[in-house]
């Protein structure tokens, strides 16, 4: 059986994690987050402050929420809660983990956690800024090569020694993608409340019409569809007839 090559943990921050688009791959190719700048992140390295810590009752799942001054992200643990031991709210920590996605939320599957200090956090931010500046130059070069009419094979040759073929592929892919800020838990809860209010306002007895809900709320239809499906799945709403939604 072929061995999957271990991915390098790339320096990143919460904003970059929360603005990327996640891609699930098949076979032995690793899943990855495609950032708006065209970087592929399969494993990430982040330094931030612990602002929340959670372990479920049967101790099969835990999470640590991190804030680096840009945004927040979660580090999750599944049956390996010993990795969380010794880390409390207010601690500054360095985390290495696999980039994962669940229900539209990007998180890190924690692998390595270490205590650090404000100086290390500042150094991490400076290193991230430097890598972004270097990447911006590469991004612009590849964009110019593409606009000049060169195909991917020609761009691979031009960028040999600076980028591998996967990195070129990611950059080219990013030019055709639309990126939006990843939803937070608060965003999802706010949208659910908005949908429920619309259902109540539009329901004249036999349920609110799906199309009317879409027209009522100024949000992308795919997000509204996902929210409505979640409300149906958890039993908050039901369908009295096709195309109609009613609150229980």
From TrEMBL:
MF terms in GO: nucleic acid binding
SUPFAM superfamilies the UniProt entry points to: Nucleic acid-binding proteins
InterPro entries: NA-bd_OB-fold, NA-bd_OB_tRNA, WH-like_DNA-bd_sf
Domain OB: from-to ranges: 46-106
CDD domains for this protein: RPA2_OBF_family
Pfam short name (any one): tRNA_anti-codon
Coiled coil: none
Protein's name in the database: Replication protein A (RPA) family protein
């Amino acid at each position: 059986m072929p061995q999957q090559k271990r991915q390098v943990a790339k320096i990143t921050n919460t904003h970059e994690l929360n603005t990327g688009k996640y891609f699930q791959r098949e076979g032995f190719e690793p899943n990855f987050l495609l950032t708006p700048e065209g970087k592929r992140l399969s494993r990430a390295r982040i330094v931030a402050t612990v602002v929340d810590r959670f372990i479920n009752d049967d101790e099969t799942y835990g999470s640590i929420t991190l804030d680096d001054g840009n945004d927040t992200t979660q580090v999750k643990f599944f049956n390996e809660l010993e990795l969380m031991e010794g880390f409390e709210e207010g601690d500054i920590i360095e985390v290495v983990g696999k980039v994962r996605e669940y229900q539209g939320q990007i998180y890190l599957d924690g692998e390595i956690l270490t205590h650090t200090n404000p100086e290390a956090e500042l150094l991490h931010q400076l290193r991230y800024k430097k890598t972004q500046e270097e990447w911006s130059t590469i991004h612009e070069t590849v964009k110019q090569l593409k606009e000049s009419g060169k195909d991917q094979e020609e761009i691979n040759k031009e960028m040999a020694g600076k980028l591998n073929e996967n990195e070129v592929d990611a950059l080219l892919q990013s030019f055709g993608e639309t990126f939006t800020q990843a939803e937070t838990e608060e965003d999802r809860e706010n949208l659910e409340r908005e949908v429920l209010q619309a259902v109540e306002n539009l329901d004249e007895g036999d349920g609110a019409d799906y199309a009317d809900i879409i027209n009522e709320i100024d949000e992308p239809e795919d997000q509204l569809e996902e929210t409505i499906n979640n409300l149906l799945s958890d039993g908050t709403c039901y369908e009295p007839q096709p195309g109609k939604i009613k609150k229980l």
